[in-house]
């Protein structure tokens, strides 16, 4: 297989300035709903990119769990994980929504901070019991010798919390990414893609600029 010959055209439709909302959150909600309606496998899946104290860049997929003007972009993780440690060092992160089936992507740049314990508890208690147990069982990002170790840890948590509700782990919670730039990308014919970036400084209004592909 020759990779240089592996290509396709982008024909899902263009994006013009008149198509955009003046508010990037409204524009994102619109595109997210269209991704959900299109039946994409993981419409809320997003890549979180961080930089750790050694300058090492890393990316991983997580699920978006809330979004809005007063909420930013919210996801949850183990506060001892490599991503959390990187955010502690450098809270500036990038999010990427790869909606490839629609020839679309959204890139978010902003600052991440921990959400309140109350918000974390509200979400944790809404999770399936198995997911709650998994949060307790996994020492996220730490090495193990075999999967059986993880399964043993899960079994231990099932025994520990065999009766009653499962409490929220103190090492687990959410992050809110408050953006200062959001880019919407729509694939175009002959690689003439449409790109629009919303950006702001501080609490100023959002500005919109069109970028060359």
UniProtKB/TrEMBL annotation:
Per UniProt, where does substrate bind? 7-10, 65, 123, 127, 131, 191-193
What GO molecular function annotations does the UniProt record carry, in alphabetical order? FMN binding; pyridoxamine phosphate oxidase activity
Per the UniProt entry, the Enzyme Commission number(s) are 1.4.3.5
Q: Where is the composition biased (Basic and acidic residues)?
A: 1-11
Which residue numbers delimit the Pyridoxamine 5'-phosphate oxidase N-terminal domain?
33-157
Q: Where along this sequence does the record place binding of FMN?
A: 60-65, 76-77, 83, 105, 140-141, 185, 195
List required co-factors.
Answer: FMN
- Catalytic activity, reaction form: pyridoxine 5'-phosphate + O2 = pyridoxal 5'-phosphate + H2O2; pyridoxamine 5'-phosphate + O2 + H2O = pyridoxal 5'-phosphate + H2O2 + NH4(+)
| InterPro entries reported for this sequence | Pyridox_Oxase, Pyridox_Oxase_CS, Pyridox_Oxase_N, Pyridoxamine_oxidase_dimer_C, Split_barrel_FMN-bd
Give, as in the UniProt entry, the pathway in which the protein acts. Cofactor metabolism; pyridoxal 5'-phosphate salvage; pyridoxal 5'-phosphate from pyridoxamine 5'-phosphate: step 1/1; Cofactor metabolism; pyridoxal 5'-phosphate salvage; pyridoxal 5'-phosphate from pyridoxine 5'-phosphate: step 1/1
Q: Which domain of life is it from?
A: Bacteria
Cross-referenced Gene3D superfamilies, in alphabetical order?
Electron Transport, Fmn-binding Protein, Chain A (2.30.110.10)
| GO process terms (BP) | pyridoxine biosynthetic process
Q: Which UniProt keywords apply?
A: Flavoprotein, FMN, Oxidoreductase, Pyridoxine biosynthesis
Entry's cofactor comment: Binds 1 FMN per subunit.
Location of the Pyridoxine 5'-phosphate oxidase dimerisation C-terminal domain: 172-213
How does the record describe its quaternary structure?
A: Homodimer.
Similarity comment:
Belongs to the pyridoxamine 5'-phosphate oxidase family.
Q: State what this protein does.
A: Catalyzes the oxidation of either pyridoxine 5'-phosphate (PNP) or pyridoxamine 5'-phosphate (PMP) into pyridoxal 5'-phosphate (PLP).
HAMAP family per UniProt: PdxH
Q: What is this protein called?
A: Pyridoxine/pyridoxamine 5'-phosphate oxidase
